[in-house]
Structures are given as structure tokens and as C-alpha cells.
Fold this protein.
Amino acid sequence: MSQDAASSVRRQFVHYHFYHLDPAWLRLGSDERERSKAAFEAVVEHYAGAGMIVIPYTLVGVRGGAEMMLWRISYELEALREMSTAIRATPLGGYLSEPHAYLSMSKRSTYVDKLDPEHGEQRAKVQPGRFQYCFVYPFVKKREWYQLPLTERQRIMDEHIAVGNQYPTVKLNTTYSFGLDDQEFMLAFETNAPADFLDLVMALRETESSRYTERDTPIFTCLRTTVRGMLEALGG
């Protein structure tokens, strides 16, 4: 794909929305809890049926401070806002806080994967796979990185990309947050093999590119499920 063609690809807004449940909800009657879950589920299904990609994940028993995550992908920022407002208006919404929320956009990669030249083009459109696990975190590079010549950055990234290619069971989704949110990138690694992801991260620590990492936390381990499964995991 040429640079002109890549620039004509419509970019997506990508949002990772984490929710924390007030334990007071668990003390409601079973009928009231069921009504609140049904209303929440209806909102998600409505927007998923209206063209937005919405993938639910549970974090129950995995990480404190957040029990649910919705990975949302839309061509319209306003649609993300409308959906969030609709969720807040549900009975369950009154028991939810939002400890983390990350906004980014799809964009063609600056760097060339010499073993897979089409890889850079794939970032122009985010297409989540059907994987059981998703590891999500914000990423910020040191400012010194951007002072390096592009040829030098490509050389360093060649090693980084080569390490990633050794783990074909892990699918990387990189989106960009420059000017949109506090981080520079949002990374979402999908896999069915968490051990492979752990080994990949360890291997990447030994690459030259790791020297230029400013921040890559917090990291969220998310288990893919259905909307109903995500709500049932809350325990009510």
C-alpha cells in the first residue's frame, strides 16, 4: 500500500474502558441485580449492533481495582461518548466507577517489518482476533527516542520486530494516543498462551529498544467472555 493510499484509510477510535464495582450492588435483591445486568447488556448489544466493535473482558480474581473491561472500536468518537452515557444511565451504572480509560487511534506503523512488509499497514485498521486473553497497557517512550534519526530508529526496531516474530501465537495491536490521552501508545496483546506472552516480554527487555521505554504500566490481564459472562462474574 502506498503512503497516499494509507493516508486515505479511515482511522478508528480505540478505547479501553475499565469498570470497578461498588460492593453495595452485591447486597441488592436478586431481581434488582438481574434487571440491572439486563439493562447494561442491552446497551452493549445495541451499540455492538450499530457498527461499533465491543469486546467484553473480565478481570475478576486477576487484578484488584477493576472487574470489567470493554474494548471498543468506533469510527465516531461521539458514539463512544453516547454509549458511555447510556451505561451510566443503567441501574448498574450507578454502582460503577471508571478507574482507568485509555483512548487511542489506529494509524499506519512508521516502521517496516522486513519479514512481513504488510504488518505496518495492518495498524491502519484494528481487527481483534478470537483469543482468550488480552494484555493491555499504556506505553510511553523517552523523548530521546524521537531525537534519533529515522534510520537509527528503524535499525533498533528491526531487532524489536524480529523478537516479536519469534512468538507467532501472540497478536499485537498497537494504536496511537499522541495528543489524545496521557500515553503515547496503547498496546493490546492477544493470545491463547499467556506463557508465550510472558516469554515475549522478557525477551523484549533485552533488546536495545527497551532502553528508550519511559513507562509501560499499569498492565491489565483480561479474560475474554460474553457480556453476560462478564456480568455474571461479578458474583451477583
About this structure: Helices lie at 3-7, 30-48, 77-88, 119-122, 143-147, 150-165, 194-205, 227-232. Residues 1-236 form a domain with the Alpha-Beta Plaits fold (CATH 3.30.70.1030). The two ends are 50 Å apart (CA to CA).
